[in-house]
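Q: What would this complex look like in 3D?
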Amino acid sequence: NAGVMQNPRHLVRRRGQEARLRCSPMKGHSHVYWYRQLPEEGLKFMVYLQKENIIDESGMPKERFSAEFPKEGPSILRIQQVVRGDSAAYFCASSPNDRYGYTFGSGTRLTVV
Amino acid sequence: AQTVTQSQPEMSVQEAETVTLSCTYDTSESDYYLFWYKQPPSRQMILVIRQEAYKQQNATENRFSVNFQKAAKSFSLKISDSQLGDAAMYFCAYRSPTGTASKLTFGTGTRLQVTL
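A: Here is my prediction, written as structure tokens for the whole assembly.
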């Protein structure tokens, strides 16, 4: 079992470009969560998805951010028209149900220049 | 909404000694889960230990144990026989049991240094 796979590990984008972050959950896990970690801070919840459904997006900024978890393929976190303030580490986690602890991926560090 | 507070931004412990990291939380729920995660410089979030609120017995995992005081809403982590590899950021986290509330709420973290 390869664990939660995130790619890319590092992503550099210029202001105004789009960033696409990918997350493949552990085999058998149908619950996916995205978190953002700003420098020297804890992780902040963004969105919770199950296959083809957004369950909770209360932590997502209202504009420019979107997430999906299609029937086939990885979960995608998309940030349109990135700004410097989007620079952060973005973590994906997966779980087999909503009662157990998560397994986290290694994160994607997004740098906006 | 639930909140998690870690009041110690940094802690230091000598190798082979014991250290306790503090965590308090606020909730109106009676059933929930509490976690400690370790984040070394590699940035990987590693689950250290988990506690179900309905269990009175404190969780233990090898050198790691918790002191769970439900009435006081306190969940401290004790690391015994500290090792250099324990140096990392430690995050306390709260999770509601089910459904749309099952996201993790994290504290701001405690940076643990281990000295020789």
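A: To summarize the key features: The mean pLDDT of chain A is 92. Residues 15 and 83 of chain A are 5 Å apart (CA to CA).
Q: Very helpful, thank you.
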